[in-house]
Every structure is written in structure tokens, then in C-alpha cells.
Amino acid sequence: MTVSFDGRVAREGWALQADGLDIDEGVTAVIGANGAGKTTLGRAVAGLDRLQAGRLVIAGSVADDPAAGVFVPAHRRRVGMVFQDHRLFGHLRVIDNAAFGLRRAGANRTDARRQAAALLERVGVDSSAWSRRPAALSGGQRQRVAVARALAPQPDVLIVDEPLASVDSAGRTRLRSLLAESPARHVILITHDPVDVATLAHTVVVLDDGTVVSRGSTAAVAAAPGCEWAGRFLGANVVAGQARGTEVATEGGLVLTVAEEAAGPVYVTFGAQAVTLHRDRPAGSARNAWQAEVQRVDIDGERARIHLTGPLEVRADVTRRSADELRLHPGLGVWASLKATELSVVT
Amino acid sequence: MSASTGVGAGRMPAAVTWVGFAALGLLVLPVVGLLQRAPWSALPSILGESEVLEALRVSLIVSLAATAVCLVLGLPLALVLARRRLRFPRMARAVVMLPMVLPPVVAGTALLFALGRRGLVGQWLEAWFGVSLPFTVAGAVVAAAFVALPFFVVTVEAALRQAGDDLDEAAATLGAGAWATLVHVTLPTIRPALAAGTALAWARALGEFGATLTFAGNFPGRTRTLPLETYLALERNPEAAVAISLVLMAVALAVLITLRDRWMPR
Amino acid sequence: MATGSITRLRAVAAAGAAVSMVAAGCATAADDGAVVVMAASSLTDVMETVFEDRHRATAVMAGSATLVAQLAAGAAADILITADAATMDRATADGSVRGTPAVIATNALVLAAAPGNPGRVTALADLARPDLLVGLCSADVPCGALARQALQAAQVAPSVDTLELSVRALATKLALGELDAGLVYATDAAAAHLGVVDAPELDGHANRYYIASVSAEPAPAVQAVIDDFTDPGGIGATTLQAHGFGPP
Predict the structure, then answer these.
(1) CATH code at C178?
(2) pLDDT in tens, A123-159
(3) By residue range, what is the domain housing residue A276?
(4) Among B118, B125, B141, which residue's Cα sits nearest to residue B222?
(5) Which residue of B has its CA nearest to C178?
(6) B138: which of A276, B62, B181, C113 is 20 to 30 A away, CA to CA?
(7) Is A210 on the interface with B (CB under 8 A)?
(8) Count of domains in chain B?
């Protein structure tokens, strides 16, 4: 079963054009700079925006085909959506927000509330909040309610727009696992967060200025990101570890010093440009230094991307000139270093 | 709006405050004038007069029916204005506001030209259905609804615009069709504005005079509403006019205050 | 209604002028020396003709009862013209009018029908037909009081649909065809081009128009205006007749 998007969505003075974009089952991350068309793609799949031309097929049935005069309205599509701004119903209690889709599908109040309660529990909304109105909740709690509400009617496709932006750290881990094992066969994840892509996505679609510039597995897209923004975004290194104060013990045994304090399981992220390579052990302020081995060198114009193995599996971006000066080649042993201020800790 | 206690709360020129209170005085003073001339001891006997009770009955029937008409017709109109892409949106909105600025007597005359027995549409109503609106209770309802409708539509449309269609979209992705969205999301979201619009329309219908007199005439028990009774009493017995006005004001104030506490955003 | 609001504004202006008049000992109620005439609204057309291009008088038009109430409340005027005896009696009784009233014209009550007489009204008794839309003046205004007397005398119980607050409004609704029949003054029937149905029962039921000076000793300019109406050859009297009013 796929979602296949082949067409054009026009917005004011601007359009999204995607030809033969097939979205397979599992979690697909849609990334791109602001205004690249990510949300527009999600809205078109959900049926909130119409195609101007082309065709959208969801699970074998045509959802939108202007030439054939077919448009299946949003409420008949079995496509759920978690909006960036939550959009909870202010006049309904939390439990009835979560039960809304089930009620529309014909469930009676008692059954709908029971199922909604189970989902709220799964996303981590405390039962003391169930009879409150959304306005009384924190941003993070509202986000969780929105996820529970979208999942409740068991959609075939779940579109999640910037899901983890306003969630606190405990909620993030829980929501990630929830999305990873989502009952929806397709999860389309519109995101700005490299950790989401690294930990959740099977496939990545890169949008730039209304067109699809790259798509495929995370590794394939990282190798050919299609635009500078995605290149930098996907070059980001994500390392898992255990935090204790300003120190994070990584799985490979290396201890990284970071600028912010944290505790428990975390991800440390840093851009490929943040990694500096040396022939000898570096002196000076870079305390995060380790010995690594060059696995592969990708030359792309004036830029070189170096894949390193060792205690950390990371990518480093250097200029072609310094790659030549260091005579980098597969199998070479080098020193890699990172400034603590370049590292961000994501819980 | 919550009461602000910050330093910035009272920051405005003193003159503004004074003019503001003066304006409040302009609104309150006539009411005080009415109160000090009120024949308090004779009040029960005046209000117990059969003409007054009859006019009160007519007024309640006409104003409530007119409010119902405003709801049934005004809600779709407000939705069309707020949600549909109209070719001439400003023009449409101006037309909706027209009865607010039209002198009521002119409104009544216009209604005669349109819906009277010899009117543009009225002649066909008479020929095809045998319906004649002028000089009937239905005519009084039409006149009151005509002048009250803009108050409802303007209030509700503003609320719909402010709410936007974000929640409607969310409802659609949860399987709610157009009707379910309207009933379960759109209307509950603007409930305070619906209540406010209904109250305003009702108050306007209750006080309606000129259009009713011109279009529906004046006959006791049928089309003579409280404002008409007040006007007639003014020539005959000014004390009675004051007494009836007091009742009109008390009823309107009671309803507006109740609604404000229960429904309107503070 | 529209003229009503204008005249009320004028009345307010005149009331303000009254104070200065008393102080300066002027001859008339207005400070520019013009004679202020308060006249029943059924005389609107007559007053416009009589005082056209003459700056010696200002006419304040309203229903007779309203005028009397305004006078009692202190409005400044030199002459009062009412459309019936009852309102003039009230003005003299409460002392707001001190001159002696005189009849200047009569206005006969007539049975008027909508143009083309769609209700086939042929007699006064037809006013009792429930299938007709019948309008009368409210009993609170002179034409209504007169109509009530006439109908009682003729023993006709009308099937009334509306009691209009002014004879002009009643005539307009008859002219528009919204009402089938009604009792209006001859002058209003003529002005609105209404068909008049012969009704002998109405003979003798006419309104008398009274004129009186507000002051017991009117100034010469004020007396001149009164004479215009009481003198059978005066411009007031001839204009009244030209507009369909009967002789005193």
C-alpha cells in the first residue's frame, strides 16, 4: 500500500510540484527549509488543499484527480493529522477531544470515551487532566492530546506536522516510541529535528522551493541531499548516550563534554562542519578529541565529506583543500575533535 | 479581558477619562430622568391595565418570533459572509448593515413597497398564496426581524472570522462531514457570540417602533406593541408612558445582564 | 414623521428664543421679528403656500395634541392653529393661549377607497366587511375621534385592521393600495388622489380648524396674520379653500 502523489498544488503566488512521489509504508520524514512546501504536501494528502493538476492515490483509490473530477473530501479519507498548532476543540473536555473522531465514526459516548482514555494513557496524559478544557493544559500536554485525538479513529495515514516542537523531554521519548509503533500504516513526519529523522524515519523526502529534490532511505538521501539546506541538515551527527551533569558517556565508550547539564538517556547532535580533523593529537581548548579511522571520502566540488569509524560513527565536512593537505584516504588514522559549544543535547 | 494591575493599566491622557465618563453620563442621564418621573405608587395599576398587558403580550410574541427568524436566516447569512469567497464582499457586508442606518420609518415604507399587497413581491404572495403581510402579526414580525437581523449577523460573522476555519479543518481530518463540523465544532466555538447576537437582535426587536407602525400598522392585540402603546400613552397620559418604558428597560437590562454573566466573554 | 422631527427641532429653537424676547420686549416670539405660527400638520401644504417667499412668519408643524403639549411646556409661539375644538379648548383652559379662538375652516370626513376601488366599497356600512382591509385614525388624534363619533351615529361597527397615528399615514396607505377603505379628511383624500365614496351618514361630521393668538394683546404683525385667515378674502382663507377646506 502506498500514497502516491503526482501533481501540483497551487497556493498564492507559489506552487508545490511533485511528480511520481510514492510514499511507502512506515515512517517517512518530509524535510526542507521553511516555505519549501512540507505542510502543503501534508494538507493535500489530508484533503485540506486540492490538487490543481495531477492525481493523488491513497491505498489504491483515487483521492484527488481534478481532470477526472474526483475529489474525496477530507472526512472520507482516513487520513489523520496532528497540526503544528494542535487545534484542539476549546469547548470540549480533553477526553471528548480525544473521542471526537470515534464519535463521528458512530461509536457511542461510553465506548468512545473508553478508547480515548486508553489512548490518552498511552501518550502520557494524566487522568486528572481528562475532564479539563484544553486551555488549562500546558503546550506539551496539548500536543499529546492532539496525537491521541488523531490516532483514535485509526487512520491509514497519519500526518504529523512538527510533532515534538512543544513537548517536554519525558514526552518526547514517549511520543517517539508511540509514532515508531504507530498503528497507522503510513506516518508522514514533517520535521525540523534531525533526531526525529535519525531515530524514526525509514524514508526521507527532501523538498526545496516546492519541488522534491531527493528521496529514499536516510542513508541514500544523506549521500545525495539535493540541496544545501538538506545537506547541512542530514550531515548532522546524532550520537546516543547517558548524561550526567555536563558529561555524556556514549555507547562506544567515549565521554563527551557538553555545555548544558542533563541526566539520563540523551542524544547529542552536532553538524558535520563542527568536526575538526588533525594528523596529530590536537592541543588547546578542544577537549572532546578522539582517535578515528577514515572509512570513506566523498568529494563534492570544493567540499569533502569524511566518514569516520572508531568510538563514534560520525561524518565530518572539510574543504577539499584541507582534505588534500591532510592526505585523507580510507584506512588512515586521524584525530577528530569537537568544541563543547557546538554540541546540543536532546533528551 | 482580565483586570490589569500593571503600571501601564491606567496610562492614557486624563482628558480621555473625563470624556469617557461624560459619555457614560449621556447614556445614563435620560434613564435617571425617566426614573425620577416614574409614578412608583401608581405603577401596579398602570401596568395592570388591559391595554398595557395586551401590548406586552404582542411585544413578547413579536420580538421572540422575530428573534427566531433572525437565528434561522441570520446564521446561514453570517456563515456565507464569513466563509464563502464572495465576489463583492464589502458590498454584501454594507447591504447587511443597511437596516442599521436606515430610518425605521423608511424601512417600513421600503417593506411596504416590497412585501405589501401591491408590493414587488407582496403582490405575488397575495395572488399565489393569499398571504398579505401588512397589518398582521406576521407583518410586525417581518418588520422587527428586518431591523434586528443586522445586529445578529454582524456579531456572529465577526466571531466566525475571528475563529477562522482551523478547527473546522481539524474536525474534517477526524471524519466530521460538513454538518457534523457545523453542529459539533463551528457553532459551539462561537457560542458566546451566538448568545450575544441573539440578545442584541431581541433587544432591537423589542424596541422596534417606526418600521412596525409603517408596515404592520397599529391595532390593539394584533400589532400594537409596547413601544407603540408607549407612544400613544405619551399623548394621553405621560405617566403611563413612563411606566411602560420602565418595564421595557427593566426587561432588556435583566436579559442583557444575565447573558453577560453566563455567556459573554469578560 | 420626517416633518415631525424637523418641526420639533424648530420648536426647540423657538423655545430658546422666547427668553430673549421677554428680556428685550420684542413684538413677536422669534428674535428676527418673524411671527411664529404653530399649525396642525394637516395644514402643511396650506402654510407653505401662505408663507411662501414671505419672511414675516415661521410655521411649526406637528399634530394638534403635540403642539398644545409643547406650548404648555413653554415653547415660544405667537399663533396656534388646531385641527379641532378639543385641543384648542385644552390650550385655552391651561392658559397657554390667551386670545379668543375663531373658526377659520372646516374639513369634512369622507369615505375614501384605494385607487380603482378594488374592494368595491359603495357605502359606509362596507367598513364592517371583514374581507376588507380597513384603516381609521387612532382615537387619540382628531380625525380618529371624529371617525368614531360618525360611525357610532351611523351605527356601523367597523372591522378595523389598523389605527394609524396620523391622517396622512392613513391616506398614504390607502393611496398605495395596502388598505381598501378608510375615513380621512376631504383635503387628504384630494391630496392623495383617493376616490371618495358617497356616504350621506358623514354629512355634518367635519372638523373645525381654530386659530387663536397666544397673547391676549397680539402685536400688529401677529394680528395681521390672524386676519389673513379670518377675513374671507384674506390669503389664508382663500388658500384654505383652494386646498379643499370648507368655509367656517
Answers:
(1) 3.40.190.10
(2) 889 999 999 999 999 888 898 899 999 999 999 999 9
(3) 238-346
(4) B141
(5) B117
(6) C113
(7) no
(8) 1
Secondary-structure percent of chain A, ordered helix, strand, coil, rounded to 5? 30, 40, 30
CATH number at residue A285: 2.40.50.100
Domain boundary among A194, A225, A256: A225
Interval A250-307: pLDDT, tens: 888 888 888 888 888 888 888 888 888 988 888 765 578 899 999 988 887 788 889 9
Q: Is residue A232 part of a domain?
A: no
CB atoms within 10 A of CB B262: 9
Q: Which residues contact B224 (CB under 8 A, 6 or more apart)?
A: B54, B55, B58, B218, B232, C163
Cell of A199: 531515530
In whole angstroms, give the CA distance from residue A67 to residue A54.
7
Q: CB A48 to CB B185 under 8 A?
A: no
Same domain (yes/no): A198, A50? yes
Residue of B nearest to C63 (CA): B235
Cell readout for A194 is: 534531525
One-letter amino acid at A295 equals Q
Q: How far apart are the first and last CA of chain A?
A: 34
A154 and A108 in a common domain: yes
DSSP run (H or E) holding B104: helix B104-115
pLDDT tens digits, B243-260: 888 888 888 788 778 766
A132 burial class (0-12, 13-18, 19+ CB within 10 angstroms)? middle
Look at residue B102 and tell me if it is in a domain: yes
φ, ψ dihedrals at C217, nearest 5°: -120, 85
- Residue A233 falls inside a structural domain: no
Q: Partners of A17 in the beta sheet?
A: A8, A211
**What domain count does chain C have?**
2
Higher pLDDT, A99 or A323: A99
Output the nine-digit C-alpha cell for A100.
Answer: 471526537
The residue segments making up the domain with residue C10 are 2-105+207-242
Spell out which residues of chain B touch residue C173, defining contact as CB-CB under 8 Å.
112, 134, 217
Domain shared by A245 and A305, yes or no: yes
Distances (CA, A) of B219 to A49, A217, B6, C221: 57, 83, 58, 45
DSSP label at residue C97: -
Q: Which residues of C touch B132 (CB under 8 A)?
A: 133
Strand extents, DSSP E, chain B: none
Tell me the whole-structure pTM to 2 decimals. 0.78
- A73, A83, A153 ranked by CB distance to B170: nearest: A83
Could you tell me the strand order of the sheet in which A255-270 lies?
A: A237-250, A255-270, A344-346
Task: Give the CA distances from residue C124 to residues C30, C131, C137, C203, in Å, rounded to whole numbers and listed in that order.
Answer: 46, 15, 16, 12
Q: Tell me the CB-side half-sphere exposure of residue B189, using CA atoms within 13 A.
A: 24
Question: Helix B238-262 to helix B50-83 angle, to the nearest 10 degrees?
Answer: 40
Q: What is the pLDDT of residues C56-70, one digit of tens each?
A: 688 888 888 889 988
Chain C (68-107) residues lying within 8 Å, Cβ to Cβ, of chain B = 69
pLDDT at position C17:
38
Alpha carbon distance C51, C47 (integer Å):
6
Residue C248 lies in a domain: no
ipTM of the complex: 0.80
Residue B89 C-alpha cell reads as 464582499
Torsion angle of the four alpha carbons A39, A42, A46, A49, in this order, in degrees rounded to the nearest 10: 50
Is the Cβ–Cβ distance between B146 and B107 less than 8 Å? Answer: yes
**What CATH number corresponds to the domain at position A47?**
3.40.50.300
Closest C-alpha among C169, C134, C140, C136 to residue C69: C140
Q: Is residue C22 one of the residues assigned to a domain? A: yes
Which set of grid coordinates corresponds to residue A1?
500500500
> Amino acid identity of A78?
R
**How far does Cα C123 stand from its chain's mean position?**
26
Q: Is A224 helix (H, G, I), strand (E, B) or coil?
A: coil
* Alpha helix stretches (DSSP H) within A7-160: 38-46, 94-104, 109-123, 139-151
Residue B118's pLDDT is what?
A: 86
